[in-house]
Amino acid sequence: MPISYALRKARLAAVEQRTMKVSIYVVCLGFAANVGYGFFVQSDTLLLTAIFYLLNLVSSALGLLVATVVSRPATTRFEYGYWFLEPLVNGINGLMMLVVCVYGFVNGIEGIRSGGHVVNAQGVMLISAASCVISFAMVVYKKRAAAQINSKLLKTDGWKWIMKFSFSAATLLGFFVYSILPESFHYLWARYVDSAMTAGLSLIFLFAPVKIVSTSFAELLHMSPEENNPRSEIEMALSKLERELGILRHHTHVIQAGRRNFVEVSVLVGATSTLSDLASQDELRERIWETLSANPLESRLIVQITADPRWEDGRQPG
Questions:
Q1: Helices 121-149 and 44-69 sit at what angle, rounded to 10 degrees?
Q2: Is 253 found in the same domain as 191?
Q3: Residues ≥6 apart with Cβ < 8 Å to 1
Q4: Does the pLDDT of residue 184 top 80, yes or no?
Q5: Which InterPro entries match (predicted)?
Q6: 199, 252, 265, 308 — which has fewest CB within 10 A?
Q7: Which has more pLDDT, 140 or 55?
């Protein structure tokens, strides 16, 4: 492994680990504040936010573990490295966020059905405003760090902070609007505003974890990635070389795990192909590798060249 690549990899791992540690510290602070004040003012919305923080603490700890392990070199047991851990943890995080949203929606509907309860609107607005400031700062911090090292792990963690910011902002706005309503409306909404906000916000934010879960499990199931997929570029480059190199057919397969693409290219050549010696075959591999340079993800490339149709796209029974 080149020294420059190893140093770059270590630097990116350090950024990821530092960012996840900051997330854990802030999550602990947010959880303590929301659960304590939520019980004090009897607000389901703040308690739901506290549950968000609690699950975020678990997912941030898992994220820190992944950030530490994923940079390790491959072993005889994990021959392709630990890249699979990133979509696995992202999927677990998404599932936890999904469970919280469903729980919040059900809990809010149950609160409305049971007649609701009166909460201290000023207290909820105060803690929501503080949560907005902290969450927004974390969104900016996570976004910059994720863009710097192109980390899906940090992007997923950033989504959780976006959800918390949006949840807190919507809660602040909802209770502010309630506080400026005429007194006649106060009597009508006093017992239902907290439960209604909990159910409504949970339903709105249900779509973000669904997206995270679907993307993560698509990677775990080795489905062709929708983003950062170099297949079309490789196929186009090979199509231009068919006549020059005597290529009959070619096949490209791409799977994605975390921030790495695993690319397999199979090339079937004719009897008169110029790809008859190792030097020309390696030159073709270099050309294919060059098409991957514009992709923001790391790549692992395997190129198979054969003149036997039985090995055209990997030999299979039959």
A1: 20
A2: no
A3: 73
A4: no
A5: Cation_efflux, Cation_efflux_TM, Cation_efflux_TMD_sf, CDF_Transporter
A6: 308
A7: 140
Strands lying side by side in the sheet with 298-306: 247-257, 260-269, 298-306
Residue 317 lies in a domain: no
161 shares a domain with 37:
yes
Give this prediction's pTM. Answer: 0.68
Q: Rounded CA gap, 90 and 156, in Å? A: 7
Q: Are 263 and 230 in contact (CB under 8 A)?
A: yes
**189-200, pLDDT tens digit by residue?**
777 777 787 788
Is 164 exposed, middle or buried (CB count within 10 Å of its CB: 0-12, 13-18, 19+)? Answer: buried
Q: Is 256 helix (H, G, I), strand (E, B) or coil?
A: strand
**Domain span holding position 292:** 231-311
pLDDT given for residue 206 in this prediction:
83
Neighbours of 195 (CB within 10 A): 24
Residue 5 has a pLDDT of: 54
The angle at the Cα of 231, spanning 307 to 310, to the nearest 5 degrees, equals 25
* Of 251 and 157, more confident: 251
Same domain? For 269 and 143 the reply is no
Residue 208 to residues 28, 85, 94, 130, Cα–Cα distance (Å): 23, 21, 8, 23
User: Per-residue pLDDT averaged across 100-118, rounded?
Assistant: 81
Structure tokens at 102: 């469903």
Hunting for tokens 């969450």 — which residue is that?
135
User: How much is the pLDDT for 282?
Assistant: 94
E strands, the chain, where? 247-257, 260-269, 298-306
* Dihedral angle of Cα 182, 172, 54, 133, to the nearest 10 degrees: -160
pLDDT per residue over 46-56, tens digit each? Answer: 777 787 778 77
Per-residue tokens: 239: 């199509």
Separation between Cα atoms, residue 220 and residue 94, nearest integer Å: 14
DSSP 100: H
What backbone phi and psi angles, to 5 degrees, belong to 270?
Answer: -90, 175
Average pLDDT, the chain: 82
